[in-house]
């Protein structure tokens, strides 16, 4: 069991802070998941395509790193709530000129509101760590942007804040003894005063991946990934006896304690960035598809379940996932390019484990993903996999018999796609149920056509595991592997056709 202890001389102060934070943090029913939209892609989708993807995934909250006019126009009348940003390279100008700030708000906010539902403005991003020379004007920039909103009578609808890197919080484990880097207090104190007076959130970027990587083995992987832990594996704050089962909650509570040390106990925390990379360099072995899937799936469930943190149970921590797309133009290591949930073509990088956790991003696992035959796959392998699906896989393949809705087009790719997708949904879209020795792939494009409606569209498959049969994979050597063509003397589809002919003849005789 991980544990930290503080000296007894500070215990009384901590207990007072504990009570202050607990009393002022009120339950909030509006926890939500949003997504950051980066644009460093060599083939960045058109804004209308981006919005179409957001709608398909029922994403209702996004953060832009700028105030791109094309995106703001495309987001108009979409119902999606938008956070726009003052880029870091514009911060100095805005922080030194009230009129520059007013012009920025007029051009990038007033011109689009209310058709585009702008709810917040992020003034800069991680200013203290990325452009520390501009920190001196940060509070002025916040105030000038807010004054422009007041002048347009939009200050109640649109909040103003600045995303902060969690690295500014020192001694963050245990959370109860966390405090901000004191060298920044001359900026942080007036900044927190501003947030408190305007009812704006403290925006925090939380990256358990980096905390894990930099801990030299102190932080277990499961603790970083938000995996369920046995009580004896949880981290215990010895000063408050509060148990922490993941880095994310501990860091959010550390932010609350750090603010409390500066006597601010009623500013809500919003996490503006969090995620996990799906690919990395050789020295980043834990940047994998499975870990990215695990972290983001656990994070989404955690936020939408309104769990709160151990110190603030039931208090919303709305969170924006970093990020919507993989960004191949990002500089730096391989991991920097692979934080996205989707590729530029809209295909999911991985299929989130989100069944039963709500609607946002759950379309990937409940409604709108399909299993299809790969283009260019070996026809013999496709036929063998088709035979397996309609045989040992126990898929109802009657719809692809001659005269039935999905018989046309009469080729192995079309018939295999129907069988693969049926099996995929029959098995509840479980991992590895869309492989079939490498000839199948997952897509978000509905393969239904004409009167041929695939199971994922019709809802006939409800996600229950049918007969506990495992789909064949590349490494499968068990008796469940798809047989070679002719294993049954004829293909299973051929057998079904013959059976149908025989039954038809019997009906005529009777």
TrEMBL record:
> What is the catalytic activity of this protein?
Hydrolysis of (1->3)-beta-D-glucosidic linkages in (1->3)-beta-D-glucans
Name its cellular compartments.
Answer: Cell membrane
Q: Which SUPFAM superfamilies match?
A: (Trans)glycosidases
Report the membrane topology from the UniProt record.
Answer: Lipid-anchor; GPI-anchor
Main localization, broad class: membrane
Q: Which GO terms describe its molecular function?
A: glucan endo-1,3-beta-D-glucosidase activity
Q: Which Pfam families match?
A: Glyco_hydro_17, X8
Give, as one word, the top-level EC class. Answer: hydrolase
What keywords does the record list, in alphabetical order? Cell membrane, Disulfide bond, Glycoprotein, Glycosidase, GPI-anchor, Hydrolase, Lipoprotein, Membrane, Plant defense, Signal
Q: Which EC number(s) does UniProt give?
A: 3.2.1.39
Say which domain of life the source belongs to: Eukaryota
Signal peptide range equals 1-25
Q: Does the keyword Lipoprotein apply?
A: yes
Biological process GO annotation list?
Answer: carbohydrate metabolic process; defense response
Of which family is this protein a member?
Belongs to the glycosyl hydrolase 17 family.
The name under which this protein is listed is glucan endo-1,3-beta-D-glucosidase
Q: Which organism is it from?
A: Turnera subulata
């Amino acid at each position: 069991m991980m544990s930290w202890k503080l000296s007894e001389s500070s215990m009384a102060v901590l207990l007072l802070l504990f009570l202050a934070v607990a009393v002022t943090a009120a339950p909030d029913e509006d926890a939500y998941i949003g997504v950051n939209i980066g644009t460093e892609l060599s083939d960045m989708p058109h804004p209308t395509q981006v919005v179409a993807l957001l709608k398909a995934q029922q994403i209702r909250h996004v953060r832009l790193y700028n105030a791109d006019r094309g995106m703001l126009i495309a987001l108009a009348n979409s119902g999606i709530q938008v956070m726009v940003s003052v880029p870091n390279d514009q911060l100095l100008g805005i922080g030194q000129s009230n009129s520059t700030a007013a012009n920025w708000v007029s051009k990038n906010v007033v011109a689009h509101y209310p058709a585009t539902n702008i709810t917040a403005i992020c003034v800069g991003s991680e200013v203290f760590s990325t452009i520390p020379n501009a920190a001196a004007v940060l509070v002025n920039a916040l105030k000038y942007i807010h004054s422009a909103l007041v002048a347009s009578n939009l200050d109640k609808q649109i909040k103003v804040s600045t995303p902060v890197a969690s690295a500014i919080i020192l001694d963050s484990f245990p959370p109860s003894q966390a405090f901000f880097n004191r060298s920044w207090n001359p900026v942080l104190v007036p900044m927190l005063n501003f947030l408190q007076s305007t009812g704006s959130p403290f925006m925090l970027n939380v990256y358990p991946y980096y905390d894990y990587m930099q801990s030299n083995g102190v932080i277990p992987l499961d603790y970083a990934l938000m995996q369920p832990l046995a009580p004896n594996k949880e981290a215990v704050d010895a000063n408050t006896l509060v148990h922490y089962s993941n880095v994310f909650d501990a860091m959010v509570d550390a932010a609350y304690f750090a603010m409390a040390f500066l006597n601010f106990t009623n500013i809500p925390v919003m996490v503006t960035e969090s995620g996990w990379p799906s690919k990395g360099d050789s020295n980043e072995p834990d940047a994998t598809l499975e870990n990215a899937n695990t972290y983001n799936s656990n994070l989404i469930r955690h936020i939408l379940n309104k769990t709160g943190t151990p110190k603030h149970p039931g208090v919303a921590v709305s969170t924006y996932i970093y990020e919507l797309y993989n960004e191949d133009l990002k500089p730096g290591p391989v991991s920097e390019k692979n934080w996205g949930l989707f590729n530029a073509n809209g295909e999911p990088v991985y299929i989130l484990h989100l069944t039963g956790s709500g609607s946002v991003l759950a379309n990937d696992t409940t409604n709108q993903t399909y299993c299809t035959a790969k283009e260019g796959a070996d026809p013999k392998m496709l036929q063998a996999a088709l035979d397996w699906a309609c045989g040992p896989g126990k898929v109802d393949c009657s719809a692809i018999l001659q005269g039935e809705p999905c018989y046309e087009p009469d080729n192995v790719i079309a018939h295999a796609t129907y069988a693969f997708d049926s099996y995929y949904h029959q098995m509840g879209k479980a991992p590895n149920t869309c492989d079939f020795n490498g000839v199948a792939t997952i897509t978000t494009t509905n393969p239904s056509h004409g009167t041929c409606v695939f199971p994922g569209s019709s809802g006939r498959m409800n996600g229950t595991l049918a007969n506990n049969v495992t789909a064949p994979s590349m490494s499968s050597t068990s008796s469940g592997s798809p047989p070679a063509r002719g294993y049954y003397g004829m293909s299973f589809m051929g057998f079904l056709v013959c059976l149908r002919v025989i039954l038809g003849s019997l009906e005529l005789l009777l």
